[in-house]
Design a protein that fits this description.
185 residues, coiled coil, Transposase IS66 central domain-containing protein
Length: 185
């Protein structure tokens, strides 16, 4: 059992915000996109300069987040939602309102990167980690044996760990072939 908190991928949310801004001309989406970029810049600076988070600064950023949400609610009143057809199911909502509701309901998970510097802004690393497995499946369709699949996964995990720790991959592979794999401390 893992004891961990969940965070949403802000890169994906920013793509959706850009779509709402471009397709529906909603100002709140533009402002939220800019605020997320500013928040990422702030946390990147804290990480780069190895400085503590300024909780007054974080509070101010969160207040701006809340103000943009209020603007989004004003731009997306319930009356803009399409009429429900039929007797069953939930009332439909516009794409903009669905995204806005996600920002309201998952604020803590969206902003987790802002209060915990160990949490990345986006989940692109996780996607990169599984990409080679998916590519292998796409090319070959499957592995011939369980042992082959396990070996492939073990090698990919080793290479990924080496990269994440900023070590040279080729040296790591050579060390592993010499039965002296690099150890990460």
């Amino acid at each position: 059992v893992y004891d961990c908190d969940h965070a949403l991928c802000n890169a994906h949310l920013q793509r959706e915000l850009t779509g709402i801004e471009e397709n529906y001309k909603q100002q709140w989406a533009k402002e939220m996109n800019e605020l997320l970029t500013e928040m990422k810049k702030y946390t990147d600076e804290c990480k780069d300069q190895v400085k503590e988070l300024d909780f007054e600064q974080i509070k101010a950023l969160e207040e701006r987040f809340d103000a943009i949400i209020i603007k989004g609610i004003e731009e997306n009143p319930q009356s803009l939602n399409p009429e429900k057809k039929g007797k069953r199911g939930k009332n439909p909502k516009t794409k903009a309102r669905n995204l806005l509701d996600r920002f309201i309901e998952h604020k803590e998970n969206i902003l987790r990167f802002l209060t915990d510097l160990k949490v990345p802004f986006e989940n692109n690393q996780a996607e990169r980690d599984i990409r080679m497995m998916k590519l292998q499946q796409k090319i070959s369709g499957t592995f011939r044996t369980i042992q082959g699949a396990e070996a492939f996964c073990r090698i990919r995990a080793y290479i990924s760990t080496i990269r994440k720790n900023g070590l040279p991959v080729l040296e790591g592979i050579i060390a592993a072939l010499k039965r002296a794999p690099l150890t990460i401390t």
